[in-house]
Specification:
294 residues, alpha/beta, two-stranded antiparallel ribbon
Length: 294
């Protein structure tokens, strides 16, 4: 889709000779009404406090006994003077504190916001202005700026690139003028206003007259020089070759060392067996003489 063109103004309110083209993101021309409706509904539901409360028959004072006996009076049976059908009694099915908050996926919120901006741009209710540099808060200067732009009888939303206290204070006493950061504006804020004024830096940079704005591409990562990379790979290959050559020699050295240790251990065992004295055999016991009978 072709880029959307809108009117542009200088910081003092004088119009520029040519219209400017808005950036492709988020001004891609798509307007999703269902998602905008959902975003507005969620926003308004989240503004509700949910603190309304009424007293039930168990919370009002009094009525701790039966007003009259059950039978024999001719009147209807009653259990408490604080029942809902009595004056001063509790409320039946009244509101109680609750949470009205609703959620919405991030991508849907982004789509709703861009749809609102596109809708305002299509209606030519969106304008671009140069950075507003207010040296001090001055309501008169804001009124003059809006008069020159032809926005005096409308609800205006001014979106600044950064937080500008002087601009916000200059518009605080104006009933139909709101000032906030471009990044903080919600779908509800954009749709509530009759006209949206956006500072030029808030859109990502200075817009060229009659040309679509293009975001600056990120700087490419510095690539390693081929010569340095080749030298590093050659060093790695040489190290691998030397390690492969040394591997069999190291294995042979390990085997020979293991054989020597085994030989030493066997020699030490043999010497230990030779030096050990022979164990003496115990002397045979003499047989006791037999006693003669008789």
């Amino acid at each position: 889709m072709s880029a959307i063109e809108v009117a542009a103004f200088q910081a003092d309110g004088t119009p520029r000779p040519n219209a400017v083209k808005l950036p492709a993101q988020p001004f891609d021309g798509r307007v999703h009404e269902a998602v905008m409706h959902q975003a507005v509904k969620v926003f308004m539901a989240n503004q509700r406090q949910g603190t309304a409360a009424t007293k039930t028959r168990g919370k009002v004072s009094g009525g701790n006994q039966k007003p009259w006996r059950q039978k024999g009076t001719g009147r209807a049976r009653q259990g408490s003077i604080r029942a809902p059908n009595w004056p001063g009694g509790g409320t039946a099915f009244g509101p109680q504190p609750r949470e009205y908050r609703l959620g919405m996926p991030k991508k849907q919120r982004q789509l709703a916001r861009s749809s609102a901006l596109n809708a305002r741009a299509r209606e030519q209710a969106l304008t671009v202005v140069a950075p507003l540099a207010f040296a001090e808060p001055k309501t008169k200067r804001m009124v003059e700026l809006l008069e020159k732009m032809g926005l005096t009888s409308q609800a205006v939303l001014v979106l600044t690139a950064e937080h500008s206290p002087n601009v916000a204070l200059s518009a605080r006493n104006l009933q139909d003028v709101a000032v906030m950061r471009y990044a903080d504006a919600s779908t509800y804020d954009i749709l509530k206003a009759d006209a949206v004024v956006i500072e030029e830096p808030a859109l990502g940079g200075s817009l060229e007259l009659g040309a679509a704005y293009a975001h600056a591409a990120p700087a490419p990562k510095a690539k390693r020089e081929p010569k340095v990379a080749a030298e590093a790979s050659a060093r790695k290959l040489a190290a691998m070759k030397t390690a492969a050559k040394k591997a069999p020699a190291a294995k042979a050295a390990k085997k020979s060392a293991a054989k020597k240790n085994a030989a030493k251990k066997s020699a030490a065992k043999k010497s230990a067996t030779k030096k050990a004295p022979a164990a003496k055999k115990p002397a045979a016991k003499k047989a006791a003489p037999k006693k003669k009978k008789g």
